[in-house]
Amino acid sequence: MKLHPVLAAVTQRIRERSAPTRAAYLSRIDQAAARERGADRMGCANVAHAFAGIPPSDKFKVVAERAPNIGIVNSYNDMLSAHAPFGRYPDIIKDEARKNGATAQVAGGVPAMCDGVTQGTAGMELSLFSRDTIALATAVSLSHDVFDATLMLGICDKIVPGLLIGALHFGHLPTVFVPGGPMPSGLSNTEKAKVRELAAQGLVGREALLEAETQAYHTQGTCTFYGTANSNQMLMEAMGLHVPGSAFVQPQDSLREELTREAVRTVLGILKARRFAPIGRIVDERCIVNAMAALLATGGSTNHLIHWVAVARSAGIVIDWNDFDQLSDVVPLLSRVYPNGTADVNQFQDAGGPGYVIRELLDAGLMHEDVLTVREGGLREYTRIPSRRGERLAWSDIGPSKDETIVRPAGRPFSKSGGLKLLTGNLGRSVIKVSSVPADRHVIEAPARIFDSQEGLHAAFKAGELERDMVCVVRWQGPRANGMPELHKLTPPLAVLQGRGFRVALVTDGRMSGASGKVPAAIHVSPEAASGGPLAKLRDGDVVRLDGVAGTLEALVDAQEWEARETLKMPTAQAEANGHGIGRELFAGMRHNALAAEQGACTWL
Q: Rounded to two decimals, what is the model's pTM?
């Protein structure tokens, strides 16, 4: 299939824009790849330290026999349902490595926090910066520099982007990402959302709300809605960094262990075949565009408009929101998974899953097929589904959609354009996830009601002050202000207002995540208010127009008045409060150095 001209043009523009930084990056990883292996080039004391803790037989293999040594970077903890299965993985990986004449070591662990636990609390102000902390921890883990390949064990919101950023700074190493899979379906996402809205209105109490939440989040595995965690897994498949089809196999499935073993065989296969496919070569501009297309086709998390900018930068590639926006115009929406549908990810998997979407995009010329992946067969391997055949894995064609209310062919999409839209105007640049917003709510024009915190909006809602058409503006929520927390807890009250017939929208320099729902929300407004952005000029009562069709976000204020208006500063007491408690003091440097959301909110550039 011939490549779509817009996809080709966006890719070429990224290639040209990135030429100097990409060339420098490739030069660095080629130099690293050309060195002798770690155990051969290091001093004897260094080598002795590196392998003192492993069994003598493994020590002999890696030092004397020069066997491949796999570094495992693990995000295991038993606080997170999605990451708890990773506690078992290192032993499985080491066993499979030995069977294949190699060794494996846990190079290090990275922190993994759960936005579901910290949502609406001060802990959420560490969430975005945990991504760069994970990247740093990945670098520390691999800094021992004795590894021939790596396996990255991670799945959730900031963890996969952080691992990917860290891995790309060791771009000379073959690397495979190892997922854990979603939990079995519990209470449906639709029912859960209904209970949350009832609780926001005071119609059910804490006991009923806790019961619903506990039914929804009930065992090991990722949450079952299509938020950032599960969007991560879709993108890993589209980038060719997984064992094909491994994203949404549940932790409890017997197939899961065999896919983990296959990850070991896959990364060793790159070494044994002497195929030059390190992660820094796999992740090129075509691979990044493939990830963007997969995100758009599935109505994935808005967080990736931040994370994948940072990921691309790590490989010397420069992308921006214009690239997402232009791709969104031509990449059709092929899936409806909650919150932009009623199905959960298990139903998505059963209907066809990532492989179906990738096949449809490839056949429509909306993904690059001529890319490197961790598998020798290339990206077409990611259009097939794995299963057990006796003691071995086998892959078969996915076939047609098993449920066209969940996934559809490219010729009959849910929408001809993707689920994300760039908004520009005198309030800055922002994005909106239109795939889950009803068509009659894509344009909202109403007076602004301004809040300096999400707590302020909740208090006004409970006091009955928001019963009208209104654009709720929540500012001082960007990376430099307070770490850019997700504001997902604003969804229930705003959804209640919309359900009562009011025309409401949210405008914020904060995030709403992959769980942003049916209320129109202009998020990631850049530059942020704390950096002198235009939200700091806005006043209560100013009429704001959010137009998701035309792609604009405007304060309808006389231009001369707007130009002359004072730009407010963040209240001193609020700034002081943002810097203390729950470890926020330790992240002051990250807040100070963070780039804008459109620049990936990077703290290391």
A: 0.96
Beta strand pairing call for 175-178 and 149-153: parallel
* Strand, helix or coil for residue 501: coil
Residue 6 tokens read as: 């817009």
In the structure encoding, which two tokens stand for residue 553, read together? 């976000």
Which residue has 């069994």 as its token pair?
Answer: 55
Which residue, chain included where needed, has tokens 């990736």? 304
Find out whether 590 and 483 touch, Cβ atoms under 8 Å.
yes
- What CA–CA distance (Å, rounded) separates 168 from 47? 25
Report the chain's C-alpha Rg in angstroms. Answer: 24
Measured CA to CA, the distance from residue 221 to residue 268 in angstroms comes to 27
For the segment 156-198, what is each residue's pLDDT rounded down to a tens digit?
999 999 999 999 999 999 999 999 999 999 988 788 888 988 9
Q: Which long-range contacts (CB under 8 A, 24 or more apart) does 29-32 make?
A: 29/171, 29/172, 29/278, 29/280, 29/281, 30/172, 32/170, 32/171, 32/172
DSSP 511: B
Establish whether the linkage from the previous residue to 5 is cis, with ω within 30° of 0. no
CA distance 89 to 76: 9
Q: Are the C-beta atoms of residues 37 and 61 closer than 8 Å to each other?
A: no
Check if the beta carbon of residue 278 is closer than 8 Å to that of residue 284.
no
The pLDDT score that the predictor gives to residue 5 is: 98
- For residue 336, give the amino acid letter: R
Write out the two tokens for 575.
């700034």
Q: Which pair of structure tokens corresponds to residue 54?
A: 């492993």
* Separation CA 385–CA 565 (nearest Å): 58
d(CA 294, CA 572): 42
pLDDT tens figures, 245-260 = 999 999 999 999 999 9
- At 337 the three-state DSSP class reads strand
Residue 514, CB-side half-sphere exposure with 13 Å CA sphere: 28
DSSP class of residue 2 equals P
> If you search the block for the tokens 């001369």, which residue do you land on?
560
